[in-house]
Design goal:
7 helices; 24% strand; alpha/beta; Rossmann fold
């Protein structure tokens, strides 16, 4: 599903963000990506959506060499990937339904597809009853669920979550991870960057640890080492 081969990303402002990274994530895996702030977690996720390209090395997603894609091919790649970020980027002047529908509309989906898929996605995250609400009327956990529904509505092969629980209370954080695990059990590959050691230790999935732009640990059923917290 995801392969990085000898990947280096150098922004030219000091030490490289990533240095000679090699990583393989198989279809259907759930991976916690951990490490101190500024160690390259977000950079790695941005490579997978081709928001950035590596200075050196190769990036493969779903059998496509991302580094060789033409600009016109990037939207097709991104239709395979759902992404959830800490800053959410919900449209404040649109309802929950409209926020989720927007993701489909920008891909050119028909009105019939929107009417069929939006309620499915909202039901999956438990937000169908809030379909007519606006973002400012929701709690932090509810907003994150809407962001998750927006990522899921395209039926992605790969779901990227960058600190999705960073601004949430423990109960809401646990609920979000439970949703991600349920999505993973249905076949979607999930990569979640996080600082939350309690979640990593509670769910014991594969853990990939980054330090100074390098992978220093890759452990099945891993834990979050407390010196990272």
């Amino acid at each position: 599903m995801v392969v990085l081969r000898d990947v280096t990303v150098d922004y030219g402002n000091g030490a490289p963000a990533l240095q000679r990274v090699n990583l393989t994530v198989e279809k259907g895996e759930f991976v916690f990506l951990v490490g101190p702030t500024g160690t390259g977690k977000s950079t790695l996720l941005k490579l997978l959506t081709r928001e950035i390209v590596p200075t050196e090395g190769q990036v493969w997603v779903a059998g496509q060499e991302v580094t060789r894609l033409k600009a016109s091919q990037v939207p097709q790649l991104r239709r395979l990937i759902g992404a959830v970020f800490q800053d959410l980027l919900l449209l404040p002047d649109r309802t929950v339904w409209e926020n989720v529908a927007f993701t489909l509309q920008v891909t050119g989906a028909s009105s019939a597809t929107v009417r069929r898929e939006v309620p499915k996605a909202l039901e999956m995250v438990g937000m169908l009853s809030k379909a007519k609400a606006f973002p400012q009327e929701l709690s932090g956990g509810e907003k994150q669920k809407v962001a998750l529904a927006r990522a899921l509505v395209i039926h992605p092969l790969l779901l990227l979550a960058d600190e999705p629980t960073g601004n949430l209370d423990p109960a809401s954080s646990q609920e979000i991870v439970e949703l991600l695990l349920r999505i993973n059990r249905q076949g979607t590959t999930v990569i979640m960057a996080t600082h939350d050691w309690t979640l990593v230790n509670a769910y014991r999935q594969r853990v990939v640890e980054l330090r100074d732009g390098r992978i220093v640990r890759d452990e099945l059923r891993g834990v979050f080492r407390l010196e990272l917290a």
